[in-house]
Amino acid sequence: MTDRKRPSPRRGGFDEPPRQGDFDERLDAALRRRKGRDDQEAGRSAAMGAGLRIAVELSAAVIVGAGIGIVLDRWLGTSPWLLIAFFIVGCAAGFLNVYRTAQELDRQAKERRGRAKERDG
User: Fold this and answer.
1) Side-chain half-sphere of 78: how many Cα atoms within 13 Å?
2) Do 58 and 98 contact (CB within 8 A), yes or no?
3) In this predicted model, what pLDDT tens digit does every residue of 56-112 receive, in sequence order?
4) In angstroms, rounded to a whole number, what is the distance separating the alpha carbons of residues 68 and 49?
């Protein structure tokens, strides 16, 4: 074994090893960078989830409305009038669901921004 110190990449030679404070500073900087990336990824995931939720709610309402119209038309023999009526009702219900979901997501985003402002400063 040798008694020589290992070269320090930050100091460019056989100097003293990095101090504990240097390590702590670098670790804190790395954790801040990682937290920023994690926050961005979480934001993307939340946005994708919200978009998927809106699409499913809209399409489900239209499908259910059309399905009810088809069933009633076959049962009552009024084809295609109840299908048309319930398709329109399903579209209206779907748009109302999308509007309510958008309002809820907007409220949640405002709350998150408010909490972030309080936390940061």
Assistant:
1) 14
2) yes
3) 999 999 999 999 999 999 999 998 999 999 999 999 999 999 999 999 989 988 998
4) 28
CA angle 98, 103, 108 (to 5 degrees): 125
Q: Which residues pair with 13 in a beta bridge?
A: 8
Q: Any idea where the domains of the chain sit in the sequence?
A: 20-120
**Residue 67: how many other CB atoms lie within 10 Å:** 14
DSSP 8-state code for residue 8? B
Cα angle 36, 37, 43 (rounded to 5 degrees) comes to 90
Q: How far apart are CA 66 and CA 88, in angstroms?
A: 8
